What does this fold into?
Amino acid sequence: MTRKDVPDSEKYECYRSRLNGVISTSFSKKRILVIGTGAGSIMCINLARQMPAKLTLVDFDEVELHNLSRTAFGYSDIGKKKVNALKERILDANPFISVECVDYDVTSLDNKKMDFLFDVDMIIAGTDSAKAQRFINEKSLHYQVPAIFIGIHQRGRGGRITFVEPGQACYRCIRPDRYEEDLEQELDLNGETGSLSSCQLIDNLAMDILISFLEKNENSEFGGKWDLTYKNSNDFEIQLSHMSELEATFDVIHDSAQHVDQNHRQELDKLFAGPRIITYQEPKKEDCPCCSSVEMENLLLR
Ligand SMILES: [Zn+2]
It folds into this structure.
């Protein structure tokens, strides 16, 4: 059936017909907050096609020429706010979704506006700024909303996906090294080089993980994936290149926690067996300065 043949009343059902049995209709009630929309812009459009109810896009950057090599933006978007340019492209991909744009720094919002912003079912942290990640961890705990943190490693050699589920280990428990990065250090995801293919492999895995979480217990193809495919893992290290060990702090040759010595190049190349995902199930730390029971009591009283 061509687009013109479909009566308005049936367009919504026609659009989602290829999702039937794969993603439940309850997914169409989910609202997702995306903080940082540059590198993740293609994922946002892909996610919109899966028909959640609403995407809220947060980013105060404008589209620049150097963004085009690995984002959803086009030449005509240069100079526009990323959120506005992305909204247009999302609505073209799926006109049945609601998109809200926030083009300012959300860390300074008052409590009422913060309550409204974080009244969602999932937070996607598409920023590699350690400061922003700390802010998102705090809000995820305060509002009891799951959050997925996506990071691409240098030159797209690999990446890291960290998933924070309310009541379980927080971002600080899972990635203490990353959380405690110097307050002034701002690692801009867009500043990191990497190919579109590497970024998309990582982003698409993140999308699969977050849909699996939102679909858990639903009668759909995604319904059992959270428990049976992802096994409640909360940290995913993705190695896409034989060079990926250079991003790790674990020396596979010496089996010790120290930076990999580049002199082991030949041995490392032999050890690499192909692109792989290493999963971790990091426990909640009872004395965590962010999510311990004492801290959570204080946080929820605020
Ligand atoms: Zn914690």
About this structure: Residues 169-170, 172-173, 285, 288, 290-291 surround zinc ion (CB under 6 Å).
